[in-house]
Amino acid sequence: MKFYNELNQSQFKYNYRLTRGHFDTFHMHHGMEFLFIFAGSLLLVVENRIHHVGPGTLVLLQPFQLHRVEPDLEKDYERTVLIFDPYYMENRLQPYPQFHRFFQYLWKEKLPVQIIRHPMIEQLFQHGRDYLFNGNVNDERSEQLTFFVKSVLQSLNWIWNTLDQAAASTPSLRSNHYAECIMKWIDQHFHEELSLEQLAALVHLSPYHLSRLFHEATGSKISEHITARRIREACFLLKTGSTSIKEIGERIGFPNFSYFCRIFRKHTGMSPREYREIY
C-alpha cells in the first residue's frame, strides 16, 4: 500500500496520461480525487467491491479511501487524475449553503455511487483535457482549476438523484465474490490477529486457493490488503485524535511499537509522529 500526499505545495495536483496500462498497488490520497477515463478500461477495487470501468467514466474517490486501479494491459489507456484539497474547496463554497452541504456529503459520507457516467461530466473533462491538464499548477492555473472543480461539483449536484445506483449492487463474478467477502471481513476485523487459514475457513476454501483467487481478482496479496487497511486507520486516528502512537499501533493490530513505526514509514514515507505533526 502507498500513501500519496501530492498537496504539500498546492491545493491541486493533476496528471494526464496516455499510455499502455501498468500494474498499481492499493493506495490512498490525502485529497479528494477525480479519476476520468477517456479511453481503455480498468479494474477498480474500492470499498471492498471490484468494478470494471470503461471510457467516459468518472471515478470519485474520497480522502484516505483505499483503492486500486489496474488498467487493461491489452489496450491503450487514456485518463486524467485531478486531486484537490477538500478544505480549500470547502472555504470557497461557504457562501452557497445548499452547494456546500452537497460537497460535505461527497467529502465525508458513505456514497452509494462513486462511478459516474453522464454526458455533462464527459464534456467537462474533455474540455479540461484540451485546455487545462498540461503544465504546472501556478496561481493562474489554480484559479482555473478551482472553477473547473466547482463546475464538476455543480454538475454532480444536478444529476445526482438521476444516477443509476444499481452499480453499487451489481452481482459479482464468483471469483470476485470470494475476494469481496474477504475484504469486507478484513474491514471489520483488521485490528485482530489474522491468519490465512482463518480467512480461508470463512469461505470454505483452502489457503492456497483463496490466495490465488484473491490475487486474480484484486492484483494484491491478502497480507498487503490487511496492512493497507491498518495503515489507513492509523492515518485517521493520528489526524483526528490525541491517542498515543503506541496505543494506535495496538488498536490497529500492531502491538509491537517499533514494528508499527517501521511499517508506517515504509508505506507513508514518514514516521507516525511526523504524520501527526503535519496533519
Automatic annotation (TrEMBL):
Family annotation (PROSITE patterns): HTH_ARAC_FAMILY_1, HTH_ARAC_FAMILY_2
One Pfam family in the UniProt entry: AraC_binding
Keyword flag Membrane: no
Alphabetized SMART domains for the sequence: HTH_ARAC
InterPro entries reported for this sequence: AraC-bd, Homeodomain-like_sf, HTH-like, HTH_AraC, HTH_AraC-typ_CS, RmlC-like_jellyroll, Tscrpt_reg_AraC-type_HTH
MF (Gene Ontology): DNA-binding transcription factor activity; sequence-specific DNA binding
Keyword Transcription on entry: yes
The protein, known as: Helix-turn-helix domain-containing protein
Organism: Paenibacillus hemerocallicola
